[in-house]
Write a structure and sequence with these properties.
- This protein has 365 residues and is α/β, with parallel strands linked by helices.
- It has 9 helices and 16 strands.
Length: 365
Amino acid sequence: MVTDEHVTVVDLEPRNDEYVLRGFGKIVFDKQTAARTDWAAKAITSICRKNRLVAKTVCGLAPASDLHIRRHRMPRMERREIIDSTRFSERESSPFPIETASIDAWVEHSEKTAGNSNVLIAALDRRGTDRIKKLFRRTPLKLTAISIVPAALAAVVNKSRTIDKSRPVPFLNMDESATGIYLFIDGQVNFIREINIGGNEITKLLAAGFDIPKKEADGIAAKFGIPMGNELHENVMAGITGKMALEKIEPYLDRLVNEINRSFEHFKNRQRVDKIPPVLITGSAALLKNLAPYLDSATEYEFRLYNPFDDFLVVENESLEHGVKTGPEIVVPVGLAIDRGRIINLLPERCRYSFDKFKIGRAHV
């Protein structure tokens, strides 16, 4: 998985009702945007060499900045008809030329939608597709799919042995620069709300508020996260207390809480339910200190970290045991590796590395 902030690679091997983590690596970007394609290719290659991943197939993540997602109820039709219809219906709302975009549709047929289908439509700008293809051509991995966060989370929900699927399954997926609120019913995504703020917003607010370098702000964010309890009275650094730090990041926290409340209220009203089950926190910024207890106190909902290692994911190699601690962070890469583009695949068919030509024993992302 490649984002604006990091590269994460997981190598999974299916075994009965489990997946075994065979390889894992994460490298955080330290280069400017203009150099990130080259730098990301080098990072992926480094991780592959360390984990001995050569000529493996990979499912990548569509970049949020080049992605357009909509969920509609539509008359029942074939997938190809939906895609052709989308090129016409989304011309005005798409932020990029939809005529040249890669489009795929996730279609739900059920008795509850008699005569119609709930459809999630995803479109990837051609520039995003070309950039991903260019990136992976410079690595040892063979690109077979480009997918999206909701599809990855759906794969995890359907594989899970601990998630209660008889009720709605809510996720708060928080990365460094984006946050997604998702609810699944019967393994299908029923609600999506994505906002362009993430964990990095805390660092930005601390750096600007205290006029300190980003590196020092990163250190404060890593140590305190969201200051609570006795931490409010501790010195974060010379002359700065936890309470002062909390005041600087409150604009971000207020917006996050408002988005959560609005999203769940909308879902409850639409589905006519009174209660939201515990919200599962995932994403590369999920381990922000005090995130779950803060949201517990600031909203009427319950939050908890979801770790696939407590569910269906196992590790047998001692050198990879450090990955267990990052479980909530790698949920999306794990889901992409499990699904491999079955739900949504935005990579044009002519560009996909053939499964028939290369027999797959493992899944990668």
